[in-house]
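Structure tokens please, single chain.
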Amino acid sequence: MDARFTAEQEEIRRTVRELLLKRSGPEDVRAAVRTGEGYDTALWTTLAEQLGLPGLALPEEYGGVDCTVTELALACEELGRGLTPSPLAATTLLAAPLVLALGTESQRDRLLPRLATGRLTAALAVPGAALATALALTGDNRGAWAGGGRAGGVQARRSGDGWRLYGEVTQVLDGHSAGLLLVAAHTGGFARSRTLLYLVRAEATGLVRVRQTAIDETRPVGRVQLRDVPAELLGEDDEADVPAALAGVGDAAAAVLAAEAVGAAGRALERTVAHVGQREQFGRPIGSFQAVKHRLADVYVGVQAARSAAYYAAWSAGVRGERVGGQALAQALEALRTAAAEGVQFHGGLGFTWEHEAHLYVKRATADALLLGPVHRLRGRAAELAGVFGGDDEEVRG
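Here you go.
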């Protein structure tokens, strides 16, 4: 196996980094998060139309580039370096693959070309704080996370030839601005309890959306209220294996989000190393002290290990189909938390100020752990899938 990246893959990384260095500096990010959408729409248009990021992993027949998960991971690693806010995660990692996996041919033809070009953005609305569970990253996703047979979550009922939805979903990535919502809703009552996915247009009657205050402003989220909203079932019938599709999408998404977290961790470390090389104590740079070197060396090892795990998970998702995305994500989130915390520590009083961007990396680490983790549950699920604790007592002892 050749572990080196191809020339095309390196070109994707270089092109995205050069664009973001020009268009997504710290001040640009601060300005973007203050907009109604929570991201720079002009930059998103450039990323979509000129670089083709939303369609990287989509088939050519639907307007995509037909690349693998690896190329998407490399692009998202660069977005993570600068904490660039964009609807790429919600649209390309979660919504588009579900349309591809479950949608009818008509739905694919209608939606995927627009998603591939970025003209249409989408969001996956999962009730409560259950995104990681729905994607089978922290546990089995065949439970009652979408409401079960009780009230709560989002409920769906037939209405003539269509469906109507009612309920509320909070903490939806880009849920306040997406042009299309994929809503996970419970239907079937107690006798045939199951979770299905429904398409809801942004202009649908009875749909109310509000942007929520978030720990990490660079990862905007919204609250979605559905008040007897008309919806279209995703797929041909109501017998689709939605949990299996969510689990498949979740593993690939976890690998790409791991690369994004590694990009943020690497950039936080770079900024810290540069700072300790300039800040002086007792007449010499603090980076020359052995204790500082040792701590930052530990961070470096953690970031590099997480980067290797993220690359392997992305390659595996595209080639081998091995489910290791959750484990890679756990390692990346841990590396980001450590790099961000050490960054604030070594920046001293400067790192605690609102004006400095060190706090943004801490917020990203905290928000991602809440949204996609926590880390110990990601690792627990990975161990479960790998059969680490399987077998009888004799096998374990042996």
